[in-house]
Amino acid sequence: MPTCAEARPGSCPRCDAAAQPVGRRLVIVGHGIVQRQVLGPESADGVPAQLVVQLRRYRCRACKAILMVGPRGLVRRRWYGAGAIAAALTLYASGATSGSTRARVSPVQVVGVSAVERWATLVRWIEAARSGALFGVGGLEQLGRRSVADQVVHALAARGGWQFGDDLAGRAFDGASIAA
Questions:
Q1: Which residues in 6-47 belong to E strands, given as ranges?
Q2: Which of 121, 115, 8, 15 is nearest to 68 (CA)?
Q3: Given pLDDT bands bounded at 50, 70 and 90, which one contains residue 164?
Q4: Of the candidates 47, 49, 3, 4, which has an alpha carbon nearest to the alpha carbon of residue 28?
Q5: pTM, 2 dp
Q6: What is the CB-side half-sphere exposure of residue 151 using CA atoms within 13 A?
Q7: Is 43 helix (H, G, I), strand (E, B) or coil?
């Protein structure tokens, strides 16, 4: 884990105040460490896992905002990592059912009767992507769910440096970590 000084943001995302103004005291100061659960595989072809990561907290003295800094690939207010979401969208876009996608991406093995065939979380991700709230891909409003998943996967793969002939799932996984 990086030190407090190494992980400190350069400026506050809320008020844009510089973290370390020249000749003045720190504006963004360390404010502790918290743990967060992250679900999903650690790589495009990895097995689903449940991880606990540590996030550094900072407080902006200018606007009193609390900032969290963690490893790349975390998605705000989502249990699954960006790569896991990209992996799920890749599987779904290629024709997999939501139930089989869940079995491949989610580490949770005990599910209710309805969750065996349908994964509501996948539908929420697709709807969030359609509205532009997930990964920032636009122009998806009129598309069906599989088409939305396909477009998002290709946009993420492009962010991951995908070229024809490359592994689409692997590049989408990489691109999701960048886009998150």
A1: 28-41
A2: 8
A3: confident
A4: 4
A5: 0.88
A6: 20
A7: coil
DSSP calls for 46-74? SPEEEEEEEEEEEEETTT--EEEE--TT-
The string of pLDDT tens digits covering residues 31-73 is: 999 999 999 999 988 999 999 999 999 999 999 999 999 999 9
Instruction: Say which residues have a Cβ less than 8 Å from residue 157's Cβ, sequence separation at least 6.
Output: 166, 168, 171, 172, 175
**Radius of gyration in angstroms for the set of CA atoms belonging to the chain, rounded to a whole number:** 18
The whole-angstrom separation of Cα 84 and Cα 177 is 10
Judged by phi (left if over 0) then psi (alpha if -120 to 50, else beta), residue 115 lies in alpha
pLDDT tens profile 68-93: 999 999 998 899 999 999 999 999 99
Q: How far apart are CA 158 and CA 15, in angstroms?
A: 31
Q: Is-contact 104 91, C-beta < 8 A?
A: yes
Phi first, then psi: give them for residue 105, nearest 5 degrees: -105, -35
Burial of 139: CB neighbours in 10 Å, binned 0-12, 13-18, 19+: exposed
DSSP label at residue 10: S
Cβ partners under 8 Å of residue 22, min gap 6: none
3-state secondary structure of 80: strand
